[in-house]
Amino acid sequence: MDEAESLNRAIHEEVALFPYDANWPAMFEDERNRLLHVFPRDFLAIEHVGSTAVPGLSAKPIIDILAGVDSMARADALMEPLCRAKYATSMEFNASLVGRRWLMRWAEGRRTHHLHLMVFSSPEWEQRLAFRDILCANANMAKQYERNKRRWATEFRSDREAYTAAKRDFINEALKMQHGSLL
To answer: In the chain, where are the structural domains located?
Structure first.
Protein backbone atom coordinates (compact mmCIF):
# COMPACT_ATOMS: atom_id res chain seq x y z
CA MET A 1 0.00 0.00 0.00
CA ASP A 2 1.46 3.36 -0.97
CA GLU A 3 1.34 6.48 1.21
CA ALA A 4 -1.62 8.09 -0.61
CA GLU A 5 -3.68 4.90 -0.33
CA SER A 6 -2.77 4.54 3.35
CA LEU A 7 -3.83 8.13 4.08
CA ASN A 8 -7.10 7.67 2.19
CA ARG A 9 -7.90 4.50 4.17
CA ALA A 10 -7.11 6.29 7.45
CA ILE A 11 -9.37 9.22 6.58
CA HIS A 12 -12.29 6.94 5.72
CA GLU A 13 -11.88 4.21 8.33
CA GLU A 14 -14.98 3.22 10.29
CA VAL A 15 -15.52 4.01 13.96
CA ALA A 16 -14.44 0.99 16.02
CA LEU A 17 -13.80 0.74 19.75
CA PHE A 18 -11.08 -1.47 21.23
CA PRO A 19 -10.45 -2.60 24.82
CA TYR A 20 -8.13 -0.40 26.86
CA ASP A 21 -4.49 -0.90 25.91
CA ALA A 22 -1.89 -0.31 28.63
CA ASN A 23 0.50 0.87 25.87
CA TRP A 24 -1.58 3.98 25.12
CA PRO A 25 0.08 6.18 27.78
CA ALA A 26 3.54 5.21 26.46
CA MET A 27 2.42 5.94 22.89
CA PHE A 28 1.37 9.40 24.08
CA GLU A 29 4.68 9.97 25.88
CA ASP A 30 6.68 8.89 22.82
CA GLU A 31 4.80 11.32 20.57
CA ARG A 32 4.91 14.09 23.18
CA ASN A 33 8.68 13.71 23.42
CA ARG A 34 9.01 13.68 19.62
CA LEU A 35 6.94 16.87 19.31
CA LEU A 36 8.96 18.61 22.02
CA HIS A 37 12.18 17.58 20.29
CA VAL A 38 11.08 18.76 16.83
CA PHE A 39 9.29 21.90 18.13
CA PRO A 40 11.17 22.75 21.36
CA ARG A 41 9.78 26.28 21.82
CA ASP A 42 6.33 26.14 20.23
CA PHE A 43 4.12 24.40 22.79
CA LEU A 44 3.26 25.71 26.25
CA ALA A 45 1.95 22.29 27.30
CA ILE A 46 1.14 18.93 25.73
CA GLU A 47 -1.56 16.78 27.35
CA HIS A 48 -3.01 13.31 26.75
CA VAL A 49 -6.80 13.64 26.43
CA GLY A 50 -9.66 11.59 25.08
CA SER A 51 -10.60 8.05 26.02
CA THR A 52 -7.10 6.62 25.56
CA ALA A 53 -6.06 8.84 28.50
CA VAL A 54 -8.56 7.13 30.85
CA PRO A 55 -7.24 3.88 32.36
CA GLY A 56 -9.57 0.96 31.64
CA LEU A 57 -11.78 2.77 29.12
CA SER A 58 -12.41 1.25 25.69
CA ALA A 59 -11.62 3.65 22.88
CA LYS A 60 -10.87 4.17 19.24
CA PRO A 61 -7.14 3.29 19.29
CA ILE A 62 -6.15 6.86 18.43
CA ILE A 63 -4.05 8.87 20.87
CA ASP A 64 -5.60 12.32 21.34
CA ILE A 65 -2.99 14.97 22.05
CA LEU A 66 -3.82 18.48 23.19
CA ALA A 67 -1.00 20.92 22.40
CA GLY A 68 -1.21 24.38 23.92
CA VAL A 69 -0.02 27.39 21.96
CA ASP A 70 0.01 31.09 22.80
CA SER A 71 -2.35 32.07 19.95
CA MET A 72 -4.30 30.71 17.02
CA ALA A 73 -1.85 32.56 14.78
CA ARG A 74 0.89 30.32 16.23
CA ALA A 75 -1.32 27.26 15.61
CA ASP A 76 -1.81 28.31 12.00
CA ALA A 77 1.92 28.90 11.54
CA LEU A 78 2.63 25.37 12.84
CA MET A 79 0.32 23.58 10.39
CA GLU A 80 2.79 23.27 7.54
CA PRO A 81 5.80 22.34 9.73
CA LEU A 82 3.65 19.71 11.49
CA CYS A 83 2.68 18.24 8.13
CA ARG A 84 6.39 17.96 7.30
CA ALA A 85 6.79 16.19 10.67
CA LYS A 86 4.55 13.22 9.77
CA TYR A 87 1.11 14.76 10.33
CA ALA A 88 -1.68 15.24 7.80
CA THR A 89 -4.69 17.51 7.94
CA SER A 90 -7.70 18.79 6.07
CA MET A 91 -7.51 22.53 5.50
CA GLU A 92 -11.23 22.46 4.64
CA PHE A 93 -12.08 20.81 7.97
CA ASN A 94 -9.81 23.20 9.88
CA ALA A 95 -11.51 26.17 8.23
CA SER A 96 -14.73 25.06 9.96
CA LEU A 97 -13.10 25.01 13.42
CA VAL A 98 -13.11 27.91 15.84
CA GLY A 99 -10.44 28.01 18.52
CA ARG A 100 -8.53 24.90 17.49
CA ARG A 101 -6.70 23.16 14.67
CA TRP A 102 -6.68 19.43 13.98
CA LEU A 103 -4.08 17.11 12.48
CA MET A 104 -3.61 13.34 12.42
CA ARG A 105 -0.84 10.78 12.11
CA TRP A 106 -1.48 7.46 10.48
CA ALA A 107 0.26 4.20 9.73
CA GLU A 108 -0.77 1.21 7.64
CA GLY A 109 -4.13 2.69 6.71
CA ARG A 110 -5.31 3.62 10.17
CA ARG A 111 -5.15 6.70 12.36
CA THR A 112 -2.70 6.53 15.25
CA HIS A 113 -2.77 10.08 16.71
CA HIS A 114 -4.96 13.16 16.62
CA LEU A 115 -3.23 16.44 17.44
CA HIS A 116 -5.45 19.30 18.61
CA LEU A 117 -3.78 22.71 18.70
CA MET A 118 -5.49 25.14 21.09
CA VAL A 119 -4.71 28.27 22.97
CA PHE A 120 -3.27 27.17 26.31
CA SER A 121 -5.73 27.69 29.20
CA SER A 122 -8.59 28.71 26.88
CA PRO A 123 -12.08 27.56 27.96
CA GLU A 124 -12.02 24.68 25.43
CA TRP A 125 -8.55 23.64 26.68
CA GLU A 126 -9.81 23.60 30.26
CA GLN A 127 -13.00 21.69 29.31
CA ARG A 128 -11.06 18.90 27.60
CA LEU A 129 -8.81 18.47 30.62
CA ALA A 130 -11.76 18.64 33.00
CA PHE A 131 -13.67 15.91 31.14
CA ARG A 132 -10.61 13.64 31.12
CA ASP A 133 -10.17 14.22 34.85
CA ILE A 134 -13.87 13.53 35.55
CA LEU A 135 -13.66 10.16 33.79
CA CYS A 136 -10.39 9.27 35.56
CA ALA A 137 -11.91 10.09 38.96
CA ASN A 138 -15.40 8.64 38.48
CA ALA A 139 -15.52 4.96 37.41
CA ASN A 140 -19.33 4.98 37.16
CA MET A 141 -19.30 7.98 34.84
CA ALA A 142 -16.58 6.33 32.74
CA LYS A 143 -18.63 3.11 32.45
CA GLN A 144 -21.73 5.04 31.45
CA TYR A 145 -19.73 6.95 28.84
CA GLU A 146 -18.29 3.69 27.49
CA ARG A 147 -21.77 2.11 27.17
CA ASN A 148 -22.99 5.15 25.25
CA LYS A 149 -19.89 5.20 23.04
CA ARG A 150 -20.45 1.55 22.10
CA ARG A 151 -24.04 2.36 21.10
CA TRP A 152 -22.94 5.42 19.10
CA ALA A 153 -20.08 3.51 17.43
CA THR A 154 -22.60 0.96 16.18
CA GLU A 155 -25.12 3.59 15.12
CA PHE A 156 -22.58 5.87 13.43
CA ARG A 157 -19.97 3.30 12.32
CA SER A 158 -19.44 5.01 8.96
CA ASP A 159 -19.92 8.61 10.11
CA ARG A 160 -17.15 9.89 12.37
CA GLU A 161 -18.63 13.39 12.56
CA ALA A 162 -22.00 12.05 13.77
CA TYR A 163 -20.21 9.85 16.32
CA THR A 164 -18.32 12.87 17.64
CA ALA A 165 -21.50 14.97 17.74
CA ALA A 166 -23.34 12.23 19.69
CA LYS A 167 -20.65 12.34 22.40
CA ARG A 168 -20.94 16.12 22.77
CA ASP A 169 -24.18 16.13 24.83
CA PHE A 170 -22.80 13.57 27.30
CA ILE A 171 -19.58 15.56 27.69
CA ASN A 172 -21.44 18.83 28.21
CA GLU A 173 -23.73 17.23 30.80
CA ALA A 174 -20.77 15.74 32.71
CA LEU A 175 -19.05 19.13 32.74
CA LYS A 176 -22.24 20.83 33.99
CA MET A 177 -22.64 18.24 36.76
CA GLN A 178 -19.01 18.75 37.79
CA HIS A 179 -19.36 22.52 37.71
CA GLY A 180 -22.55 22.31 39.79
CA SER A 181 -20.82 20.14 42.40
CA LEU A 182 -18.12 22.80 42.76
CA LEU A 183 -20.60 25.53 43.64
So the answer is: 3-182
Report if pTM > 0.85. Answer: yes
Cα–Cα distances in Å, from 38 out to 31, 32, 114? 10, 10, 17
Query: Class of 3-182 per CATH?
Result: alpha beta
Per-residue pLDDT of the chain (183 residues; tens, 9 = 90+): 666 676 667 667 788 999 999 999 999 999 999 999 999 999 999 999 999 999 999 999 999 999 999 999 999 999 999 999 999 988 888 888 889 999 999 888 888 999 999 999 999 999 999 999 999 999 999 999 999 999 999 999 998 889 988 999 999 999 998 776 543
